[in-house]
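Q: I'm writing up a methods section and want to include an example of the input and output format. Could you take the sequence below and give the corresponding predicted structure tokens, formatted cleanly so I can copy it straight into the document?
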Amino acid sequence: MDYTALGPLGEVYVHSTNVSNAMVMTIVGIYLHAVFVSFTLGFPLAILAWLIKWYRTGDELFLNYSKTLTMVWAVNFALGAVTGTIVEFGLLDIWPTSILLFSSSAFIPLLYEATIAS
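A: Here is the clean output for your methods example:
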């Protein structure tokens, strides 16, 4: 599609020369980020459960489980941060006003970032 035909609107909403790749990157990033976020929120509950079980039984196996899952949680958290960054760059590149539209007064840092980055 020729985005120059959109005139000023094309300049505002399309910053990338290859919009198809940017859209795919954003879509894949959103889905991967959702998976990583769900694990990031769930792992602490499992770690806590194993630590409680270790505390009550004294079995070192549960402590080892919690240590291993803590390392997995840290890697998962890092991957979530990476995919979240990809999503944000994609949203700012394709739809620069998206974060501005999605943010509210409760999310002033996002609002500030969207206005500065655009």
